[in-house]
Structure prediction request, 277 residues.
Amino acid sequence: MADSSSDLSPEMIKKMNVEIIPLYVIFGDESYKDGVEINPHKLFQMVDERGALPKTSAITPEDFYKRFKKYTDDGYDILYISISSGFSSTCQNANIAAKDIENGCIRIIDSANLSSGIGLSICYAYDLIQEGYSIDEVVQETEAILPKVNTSFIIDTLEFLYKGGRCSAMQSVVSSMLNIRPIIKVIDGGMTVGSKIRGKKKKGFDVMIKEAIADKDKMIGDRVFITHSLGSEEEEKYIRQELEKNLPGMKIITTQASSLISCHCGKKTIGILYIAD
Prediction:
């Protein structure tokens, strides 16, 4: 199991038989299940119409209990890989629900990441399951690679991060005035600014691409994700072309940011994510 912030494609979800549990997008008094009742197109349409940004909300213990119980009653073991506990109380709520289920084998991993940074951990766990590892072995091996998941993305504007409480008003204003686009990295379960790119956004793409190429001999597995929000389709093509040219043998996988991730990063955000030792 995973939550909707993991940003896997529908094809990957189906192939790996992952149960996705939705977080919530909140507009005023209205609550929408991410990926079920709202998608990025509808999200940004509502933002434009209402002139306001939504909030997000964690999966509740009750939601988890219903999902967990459904499968434990049928004799399944469950491995749930969650969004970082540094970003959401979702992981905490999953643990609360799991404690209320007797005679069920439920393992919960805090990914310490977001978006397809979670997706990479899910893919890694899936590969181990396919190789016949036990659930305890899968948990142990997957937790060992969590600090090695490299998540970098460049955003078009700090407005969404600011209004979502992820950066200060001063950071937002200064970045806008100086035409600075920060490259955001996920470190130890939280977000930090890796580099500050001034000028054309392409300079930021090239920094991320260069970092990935420099890590090619350290990469674990054969997957590199490009994950982006709406409006970055042409930029994705450029990044994909450069990665395919310089990372032969790697699977370059493109996925779209969920409504939940888009709430915080806005349009035209794009990232490169992979596992490297």
